[in-house]
Amino acid sequence: MNKVKQKRLEAKGWRVGTASTFLGLSPEEASLVEMKVNLGQALRARREAHGLSQLALAKRLRSSQSRVAKMEAADRTVSIDLLLRGLVMLGARPRDIARVLGRGTGAAA
Amino acid sequence: MNKVKQKRLEAKGWRVGTASTFLGLSPEEASLVEMKVNLGQALRARREAHGLSQLALAKRLRSSQSRVAKMEAADRTVSIDLLLRGLVMLGARPRDIARVLGRGTGAAA
DNA sequence: CCACTATATGTCATTAGTGACATAATCGCA
DNA sequence: TGCGATTATGTCACTAATGACATATAGTGG
Fold first, then answer.
1. Which residues contact A40 (CB under 8 A, 6 or more apart)?
2. Contact by Cβ (8 Å): B105, B2
3. Hey, which residues 74-103 in chain A have their CB within 8 Å of chain B?
4. CATH: 3.20.20.120, 1.10.260.40, 1.10.620.20, 1.10.3720.10. Which one for A26-102?
5. What nucleotide is nearest B65 when CA is compared to C1'?
6. In chain A, N or C terminus with fewer CB closer than 10 Å?
7. Rounded to whole angstroms, how far apart are CA atoms A28 and B90?
8. Sign of the C-alpha dihedral computed for residues A97, B98, A104 and B78 taken in this order
9. For residue B28, which residues of chain A lie inside 8 Å, CB to CB?
């Protein structure tokens, strides 16, 4: 797991980083969180590649800046559905999304 | 788009199949529906591979038989989050899910 | 035919996700 | 330094998703 991702998780209280953690987080839950974080990062990357602010993207999504921020941060209150909608709105096709999901953090490996 | 998938979509009123349709369904929405249908099919395949009934899977998911049926049918009322939870619960890893999402129906191609 | 099992479909109360807003950091840039 | 733009975080009313239940529709074996 890379530094950036870990920091992001810890910041949101996912309790991921330091060795003893992952306690209380089943492998299944970990998989889902991992996917969500990857999608959040991909969303940010795409948004920036499009030269859009969070506010600008929010308008396209008929959402709000704060929610976009939470999407990129993989906040507990954002669904994967919403992340996918955001990515698709930024031109991501299913195969692009597939590539993002596949990005291993080395969980099982 | 293959026959089975199309039948499934039409049955649920997604109005997909016959040439003139896809009207009122934006490319973005189509992408999302397509992914959802693929996930539903994958869920059924995995469940059957595990020799589980919908009811048995429902118990593992702490859900109900009816909801599992709706998941596999890609019902409008089921979220992609729920589908992913189901798949992960059946042992699918992110890379497995990625493969499912990537299955093109020829939308953009 | 009936009994049993599995799946499909509709409805509804409870819960979780959402958009919107306020506010606080953060980051140039003059 | 302050100012404008961008991003982060907390809260809340409203909406959509969920589990549960009832019921319907196959299919299977007596």
1. A8, A71, A72, A73, A74, A83
2. yes
3. 79-81, 84-85, 88-89, 93-95, 97-103
4. 1.10.260.40
5. C7
6. C
7. 9
8. positive
9. 85, 88-89
pTM of the model: 0.83
Nearest by CB to A35, which of B34, B94, B102?
B94
- What is B3-102's CATH number? 1.10.260.40
**Interface with B, mutate which of A88, A90, A100 (most B CBs under 10 A):** A88
Cβ proximity of A74 and A82 under 8 Å: no
Per-residue pLDDT reduced to its tens digit, B26-76:
888 999 999 999 999 999 999 999 999 999 999 999 999 999 999 999 999
Rg of chain A over CA atoms, in angstroms? 14
* Contact between A69 and A82 (Cβ < 8 Å): no
Closest CB to A94: pick one of B79, B81, B102.
B102
Amino acid at A85: R
